[in-house]
Amino acid sequence: MLDGALAALREHGVTGVSARTIAAAAGVNQALVFYHYGSVDELLGTACLDATRQRVNLYASRFAAVGSLGELLQIGRELHAAELAAGNVSVLAQMLAAAQSGDRLAGPVAASLQLWIDEIEVALARIMRGSPVAEVADLPGLARAVAAAFVGLELYEGVDAEGAASALAALDQLAVLVEVVDDLGPLARRALRARIRSHLKEDGREPAGS
Do residues 54 and 116 lie in contact, with contact meaning Cβ atoms separated by under 8 Å? Predict the structure, then answer.
């Protein structure tokens, strides 16, 4: 029924999905939807979370092997292409739209996104360790920003493919900038770190790790 729920969502959209359409896609009696899940929303939320967990597990080893921000963004590009080809972008769009006004869907959708955010945050912590950039980086916030950026780009590409490609290129440029900073010599790195700390203190913020 989990696969049937996603198939029905792809075919009919969130406004057209129902116990009947899910049952037809899954090849079961529609009464089983309510027997096992209580409601269509509960089934959709469970299906979304289960499918996302499978996708995250599929890429877990790739995330664990990431050694640079550029590599992390490359995984994002591959995920973007794979999710688009599999039709999961339309599912995500439908679930996000439904979650705006459905409390029962908001939790599972947020939990699904959090699975990706957790993987990104761990990778960022490893990549940024010892970098002067880490002095100003809120890693949990940055992980959410990266995840949100790719979610937005997946939806944006449907109306402006060229603009989405430009946005991805801009993220690549940011990755290059971070790597250039990390490749600075010891003296330049110390000077940059001192300037960052000074700037943070002027703004009334404590440097990370202080």
Answer: no
In the CATH scheme, what is the homologous superfamily, with its name and number, of domain 2-202? Answer: Tetracycline Repressor, domain 2 (1.10.357.10)
pLDDT at 74: 87
The position carrying tokens 């959708």 is 109
Q: What is the pLDDT of residues 15-39, one digit of tens each?
A: 889 999 999 999 999 999 999 999 9
Query: Can you give the residue ranges of every domain in the chain?
Result: 2-202
Q: What pTM did the predictor assign? A: 0.79
pLDDT (tens digit, 9 = 90+) per residue, 152-191? 887 788 788 898 888 888 888 877 776 766 666 676 666 6
